[in-house]
Structure formats: structure tokens, C-alpha cells
Amino acid sequence: MVQTYTLRIKNGTRHVKQYRIWLWWKKYTCIKRANGRVYYEKKECSRREKNHMQRFSRRKGLTFEAVPTQYTRSNSYRSQFFACHPSATGKYRCAYCGKKKPKDKITIDHIFPVHCMEKYPAVRKRAALFGIHGSNDMKNLCTACMRCNQKKEAKMGIWILKGFLGKQPWYWPLRRILTVILVFFVLYLGRKIYMPVVCNWINTLQK
Ligand SMILES: [Zn+2]
Description:
Layout: E1 5-10, H1 20-25, E2 29-32, E3 38-45, H2 47-60, E4 63-68, H3 77-84, E5 91-93, E6 100-102, E7 106-110, H4 114-119, H5 121-129, E8 141-145, H6 146-152, H7 158-166, H8 171-206
Antiparallel strand pairs: 1-3, 1-4, 2-3, 5-6, 7-8
Bound molecules: zinc ion (ZN).
Zinc ion binds at residues 94, 96-97, 99, 144-145, 147-148.
């Protein structure tokens, strides 16, 4: 497979908007950021185009960024996920909290966040250990309720483990069984250890 890149041209010493007509002509999309600034992006570019735009940006005093396309967010990962994981009941379980939600209330989360995969080669290497070679890889996607998705944001650490475990169909029933066993065990211990202590205490009070 030929490697393609997502190219981003941002403000540098000069403002990227000065070149908007030229970038529009080259089929770049203008993307507005939350802080009101804009940058221009084009997906699926060849290595030749990448090198050309890199030289152009350096010459014009703009900031240039190239990310292998497979690590950037695709437009179709949500529909692809639902096509691969159809649900008979129409509900999906959040991998992070275990709650079941209807399809329109569930989001598809990238377990290794797209932002980290784009920015840090070390994260890509770590993801490759799990057999993940792209942000939109099915192995890197899980269902999440809106609340958990907002809480997770671009966090890693324990959230990665939670995501991988929570998306396994056996995880939540097993967790429930283990919780019941644990509760019974604690009750049994309580009866065995604390009951004689409590009885002794009551006896001493009665005397
Ligand atoms: Zn949740």
C-alpha cells in the first residue's frame, strides 16, 4: 500500500489566510479551530505533494504538518463500526461504565486518542503492540456514552485498559459475578470474625 499523508498548513510568521485562494485551488479545506483561528487541510496526499508543500510553507513562512493518513480521523469510522458490530436490540454498551444506550445516544471512541496518535510516534509504537496500525482501526474503536466520552477526552493510562476490557463481551457479566462473590466473601468474613467479637462485647456489657 502506498503511504499517503494528511497535510495541514497553519499560521507561521505569516498568516495562512493570505494564501487562501491558492490553497482553495489546490483543494485544501479550511478548518476553524475552537480559538477562532483557521488552518487548511488536505487528506490522501502523495509523498511528492507533501515534499512540495513543505518547501512552499518554508518559503512563505507558514507552519507545515504532515501526518500519515491512517492516523488521522476518518469521516466514516462511526458507520464502519456499526456495520462491523450490528446489535440485535439496537442498544450498545458503553465500554467505560457498562451502561446500555440506544444507537443515537452512543458515541464511538478512539481508545488510543487520535490527537496522541497524530502527534507522538511513541504512542503509535505502543498501539502497534496491540496490533493497531491506524487510529480508525476496528481494534482501536469502542462504544462510549456521551458522559464517559467527555470525561475521557484525550486521556490515556488507565482509560486504555478500561476501553480494551470494556469492549469485550465477557467483561461485564464476569465483573458482575466477581462483585457478587466479593460481597458474599466479605459477609462471610464479617460473620466469622466480627460476630464472636460483637457477642463477647454484648456479654461483657450484660455482666
Ligand atoms: Zn459510559
